[in-house]
Amino acid sequence: MYFTDRGIEELTERRGEEQVSVEWLADRLRAFVDQNPAFEDAVERLASFLARDDSDDLED
Length: 60
Fold this sequence. Notes:
By secondary structure, the chain is mostly helical. It is about 75% helix and about 0% strand.
């Protein structure tokens, strides 16, 4: 198990029943980078990954 799995599990446990918009997620990612600028590259890569269509992932 990766260390990040714990954070993902916490997210699922705390907010698993909620529905959120992409706009809300983008705002939260921006707020995180504002507070943690060292993670800007990782957040950028995550956002790019999430932005891709599912069929794009199958081609990689």
